[in-house]
């Protein structure tokens, strides 16, 4: 499958934060987009917000809220699933898509961690299912990990790569379908050690965040881990790793700090406390700081953001 000159219809299933962001990207580039959510009010509200946000974008096109799954995918050449991170839920959706989507449609999951092979295994449409892992916020962060399952046909993978490139995304193909793919494995390795350091009294959460933000964090945007190791020298890298690795947390289960906070309903922004304490004002300030930083960084790097073409 190749991308025609005409913008082919796109369906997005799930109108939450990620689904709405994905729909916004395609609509801003002139693709017909159908957004579906099991809660029609959620889909309608998200559609209204998206259409208002891209109203000034040249070549943009309004998103349509679909009243049913079948309606959303009836004409779609590409379908993006962006629902809860639960294997059984995703498999039910793809099983339904095998019945009601176009027989040639590319079916993508925006899962953050579940292997694509597990989602697709045994389904009639498994050859057409591919991972398409976007990063939050989807309309700002350019990278998308494209992940074939063991049964995914290569031409569907290539079609997804072409589609993402056509809307300005930096599509990267992952060679092996493993839990978390690449980006989240790196991110959660850092998070595990960060939580361990706080749990073991090495530092508090505020200090840990400040160390990351004011030391190696800014460097990561221009120098990847492998580049950095080459820069300092692999001999020095080896010496440091021999000292540090034996003492780094390697637990295969979530740590006690995280599990105890969740058990106590300290869930972060949504409850006003997580690893740190949050007020409405500090939450708003944090979101504003993040949005401003990402917009400035990606605009300067030439990738741009939706609504800033």
CATH architecture of the largest domain: 3-Layer(aba) Sandwich
Question: What coarse outline follows from CA principal-axis ratios?
Answer: globular
Total count of domains: 2
Number of strands: 8
Low-pLDDT sequence parts: 1-5
Our estimate of the beta-strand percent is 5-15%
Work out the helix count.
13
Query: What's the CATH class of the largest domain, please?
Result: Alpha Beta
InterPro entries: 3-OHacyl-CoA_DH, 3-OHacyl-CoA_DH_NAD-bd, 3HC_DH_C, 6-PGluconate_DH-like_C_sf, 6PGD_dom2, NAD(P)-bd_dom_sf
Domain 3-hydroxyacyl-CoA dehydrogenase C-terminal: 180-278
GO molecular function: 3-hydroxybutyryl-CoA dehydrogenase activity; NAD+ binding
Site (Important for catalytic activity): 133
Describe this structure in words.
The record marks 133 as: Important for catalytic activity. Residues 10-177 form the 3-hydroxyacyl-CoA dehydrogenase NAD binding domain. Keywords: NAD, Oxidoreductase. It comes from Caulobacter sp. (strain K31). With 309 residues, this protein is of the alpha/beta class. It is 46% helix and 11% strand. Helix 4 (87-100) links the parallel strand 4 (78-81) and strand 5 (106-109). Helix 1 (17-28) packs across helix 2 (40-53) and helix 10 crosses helix 11. The longest helix is centred in the C-terminal third of the chain and has 21 residues, at 280-300.
